[in-house]
Amino acid sequence: MSRTQTARLMDGLALARRIVEETAGKAVEIARRVGVTPCLATVLVGEDPASVTYVRMKRARCAKAGIESRLVSLPATTTTAELVETLQSLSQDAGVHGILLQHPVGPHIDERAAFEAIAPEKDVDGVTISSFGAMSFGLPGFASCTPGGIMRLLDEYDVNLAGQHAVVVGRSAILGKPVGMLLLARDATVTYCHSRTTDLAATVREADIVVAAVGRPRLIRGADIKPGAVVIDAGYNPGNVGDVDFDTARTRARLITPVPGGVGPMTIAVLLAQTVDATSIQLGPAGH
Amino acid sequence: MSRTQTARLMDGLALARRIVEETAGKAVEIARRVGVTPCLATVLVGEDPASVTYVRMKRARCAKAGIESRLVSLPATTTTAELVETLQSLSQDAGVHGILLQHPVGPHIDERAAFEAIAPEKDVDGVTISSFGAMSFGLPGFASCTPGGIMRLLDEYDVNLAGQHAVVVGRSAILGKPVGMLLLARDATVTYCHSRTTDLAATVREADIVVAAVGRPRLIRGADIKPGAVVIDAGYNPGNVGDVDFDTARTRARLITPVPGGVGPMTIAVLLAQTVDATSIQLGPAGH
User: Fold this and answer.
1) Which of B130, B184, B196 has the CB atom closest to A171's CB atom?
2) Alpha-carbon distance B161 to B154, whole Å?
3) Which HAMAP family match (chains A, B) (predicted)?
4) How far is B98 from chain A, CA to nearest CA, in Å?
5) Tens digits of pLDDT across chain B (288 residues)
6) Which residues pair with A99 in a beta bridge?
């Protein structure tokens, strides 16, 4: 393949819009048949400006998808015990179908303990160990939203995964680790790289599929992308810069996600879709 | 390195014996201080000869380690619901500190449902999703026994893991997947290979550490071992044959586990050690 090739862009905006429309249709259908509006409770601790912006975006998108959005704002001084109690109480509230804890929470909070207070059937953000197990073992359950969105993008563009070498750069609990498990479940050969990997470039050069999920601007050099590879950039750094050097990578890749407009919009779309799915499941046969 | 080199053997028998002795010491100490003997309940469904043999071996080893062994034998016709009930009841029994469900259980039983009926604090075999999450996220909890045994062997022989490329061949829920997560937690770059991997030999040739965990005799050719690599063979096939072609591999590797006498004995040793640890934890401050 020549260097003058330009990769096809994986349009997350368009796919996300379609998913939100389908989700809205399902929400309307549930409301019509059972008289219940799907409800997502969002818990925000403190007033970190980025978190406040994300929460506002998610709530606006809920409105578009016909999902009721309940905001629980807690002060920055909230303790782990108080947050756990709030999440347990939402887990037991029959009027709430999905729960999102906006994270990261402050460093004084045990984030894992908070996540685990979310009932698995309401864990539409896919952050609990139960959801990670479901993703890892192919059991019923919700995906972490960004990994789930990445898988939908790969499917939308008919990317063959079986036997392909997927290199995941990053190993966070809600992005790198679960996306690797989802790729493995689809029969990819999966390599996890991270900050301690000795020769990242050499590993990336062998990847049929690269998933960059580390949050370091342009860490992946375009020159290291194997010609014809599929590049998923889940990084989102200041100045709309991804983890991949986009301009060079697109001259070598076959498919690539832009930043913004690639993985980003998919995250919220999956959150909404899973909220409506959770509602259906919780309502039982009547909800389907 | 020349081909006439012979790898140092990783002696799982000797290390396992030492762990069992240490475990016995701890069990005696608990009995002396609190008057409680650590108790492992083993649940056996049916009379599969291999399972019966394993259970007998484990019970004999319990006796050596000062652990009381309670055997619950269920007929082959046991249903999932009945097995779940048995495991839940053992989970609530204060006289039982660890629970082992001998597996595989029959094909008519939902093995995952059975595993999940084991309380995480008694899951000394490390089979629950909760234990997998602990291994994956570096949280307190029990390791799957074979992966836990592999990590102890690697540490015993001072194998550096950080930044090393570990190739795990196999992706089962209790061996391949968790050992990869444990290696990742120790900063190895981890690749999961399996039956759908396109070019297994090429991937193995790049491995600093190979973990073979797939149960196919001599699947890994010795010629594909990188000179100086560390080879962990968790395969155990008829005729005492591992997943690695031992005779050739040992001329190239730096360290290698024999079959038998490598990984095998470690599995039971970790089971016993974790049973006594579980007892300490359940007894609270008095148990330490």
Assistant:
1) B184
2) 9
3) THF_DHG_CYH
4) 21
5) 445 579 999 999 999 999 999 999 999 999 999 999 999 999 999 999 999 999 999 999 999 999 999 999 999 999 999 999 999 999 999 999 999 999 999 999 999 999 999 999 999 999 999 999 999 999 999 999 999 999 999 999 999 999 999 999 999 999 999 999 999 999 999 999 999 999 999 999 999 999 999 999 999 999 999 999 999 999 989 999 999 999 999 999 999 999 999 999 999 999 999 999 999 999 988 776
6) A41
What chain B holds in terms of domains, given with CATH numbers, is 35-121 (3.40.50.10860), 145-265 (3.40.50.720)
CA distance B274 to chain A (A): 21
DSSP conformational letter for B125 = T
Long-range (24+ apart) CB contacts under 8 A made by B280-284 are B280/B26, B280/B30, B281/B121, B282/B97, B282/B121, B282/B122, B283/B30, B283/B34, B283/B36
Nearest to A198 among B163, B173, B203 (CB): B163
Of A26, A122, A125, A245, catalytic: A125
- The distance between the two most distant Cα atoms of chain A, rounded to a whole number of Å, is 58
DSSP for residue B103: S
Query: CA–CA distance from A99 to each of A43, A118, A273, B26 (Å)?
Result: 8, 7, 13, 44
B75 Cα distance to chain centroid: 26
Residues of A in contact with B192 (CB under 8 A): 180, 184, 189-191
- Contact status of A197 with chain B (Cβ, < 8 Å): yes
How far apart are the CA of B193 and the nearest CA of chain A, in angstroms? 5
CA distances from B267 to A206, B15, B261 (A): 35, 11, 11
Residues 6+ apart with CB under 8 A from B150: B179, B182, B211, B232, B234, B263, B266
- Give yes or no for A191 touching B (CB within 8 A): yes
Report whether A235 contacts A243 (CB < 8 A): yes
Q: Which of B110, B112, B116, B136 to mutate to test the interface with A (most CBs of A within 10 A)?
A: B136
B53 contacts: CB under 8 Å, gap ≥ 6: none
Contact B142, B121 (CB under 8 A): no
Beta bridge partners of A8: A255
Burial readout A210-226 (b: 16 or more C-beta within 10 A, e: otherwise): bbbbbeeebbbebebbb
